[in-house]
Amino acid sequence: MSDHDRPGPGHHHRHDSVHPDWEVLGPDLERAAELYTPVYEQAASWLREAAPGGVGRVLDIGSGPGVVSCLLARAFPDAEVVAVDATGALLERARDRAARLGLADRVHTHLAEVPDGLDALGGADLIWSSKALHHVGDQRAAVAALAGHLRPGGLLALAEGGLTPRFLPRDLGIGRPGLQSRLDAAGEEWFSEMRAALPDTVEETEDWPAFLADAGLRAPGTRSFLLDLPAPLSADARAYVVTTLTRARDMYGDRLDENDRTALARLTDPEDAAGITRRPDVFFLSAQTVHTARA
Questions:
Q1: Which of 14, 127, 237, 278 has a C-alpha 20 to 30 A away from that of 61?
Q2: 69 is in which domain, residue-wise?
Q3: Which residue(s) pair with 286 in the sheet?
Q4: What's the rounded mean pLDDT across residues 111-133?
Q5: What is the pLDDT, as a whole number, of residue 282?
Q6: How many domains is the chain built from?
Q7: pLDDT more than 70, % of the chain
Q8: Bigger pLDDT: 53 or 133?
């Protein structure tokens, strides 16, 4: 899966448990990816410079609703783009989006699990995967599986890691200062437990360049891309922050004290003057890291 996942530190919001209902989350995933479009456009521009000439086929592994698949189709106008995901409802969204954008002849879909269901995909000149491989128990093996689908000279790009999104001032004027830092800590604990519960999980340092090198790839590169939305936020961006905080409260609010839970309830209340939808000081600042290497 891609297009953003858990609320909180660096992973946005893609799962409520080890086995989330991706169909229910589809609209949120699409809105989140649209919010992050400036980041994806920056990354695509970098990949155009780094990718081999004449990119004819792109795989978007863990495509979700296909926002990035369509963006990659525009970035590489001569390429077929295959959106690959394990949830049929999300691939239906990808097909609908491609049709709306006039890209249905070049954006196709493939239903498959990562990495075990990829054998039928064939090769590609560029493989992109965003926020998908941390859902796989053995991340190193997943990277190797993707590398195996690269054509000679092809490029593998993994959007994993970055900096925790920030959107709240340190002192909100309600509750104790530092709420976002405590949310970050609770989210990291939750994420570690989610990883530990995955099938065949392997506990190891999340060193993505090392995973790429172990897969036999060369010419590594890493860049981070900034999303900087200053206050006051648009209505869509505010809605994204409210969704993120609501999911954080539901997923790991029990790790916070009563004071922080009360503050979260007020922040997500559309009628509260101190809430996200009304306060003028809410911003959005995030960075996404992309790791690349070549076959």
A1: 237
A2: 22-294
A3: 227
A4: 93
A5: 97
A6: 1
A7: 92
A8: 133
What's the CATH number where 233 sits?
Answer: 3.40.50.150
Q: How far apart are CA 277 and CA 169, in angstroms?
A: 15
* Residue 212: how many other CB atoms lie within 10 Å: 27
CA distance 163 to 211: 20
Geometric angle at alpha carbon 64, from 157 and 154, rounded to 5°:
25
- At position 15, the amino acid (one-letter code) is H
Helix (H, G, I), strand (E, B) or coil at 125: strand
How far apart are alpha carbons 261 and 253 in whole angstroms? 6
CA distance 66 to 98: 8
Q: Confirm if 243 and 28 have CB atoms less than 8 A apart.
A: yes
Task: Specify which residues 218 forms β-bridges with.
Answer: 294
* String of DSSP letters for 15-57: -SSSS--HHHHHHHHHHHHHHTHHHHHHHHHHHHHHSPSS--E
* Residue 2 clears pLDDT 70, i.e. is over it: no
> pTM score, two decimals?
0.91
Residue 189 has pLDDT above 90, yes or no: yes
Pairing of strands 107-111, 80-85: parallel
CA distance to 57, 118, 196, 198, 270, per residue, from 106 (Å): 10, 20, 38, 34, 41
Q: How many residues can be counted in the chain? A: 295
And the tokens for 171? 């002192």
Mean of the per-residue pLDDT values of the chain: 91
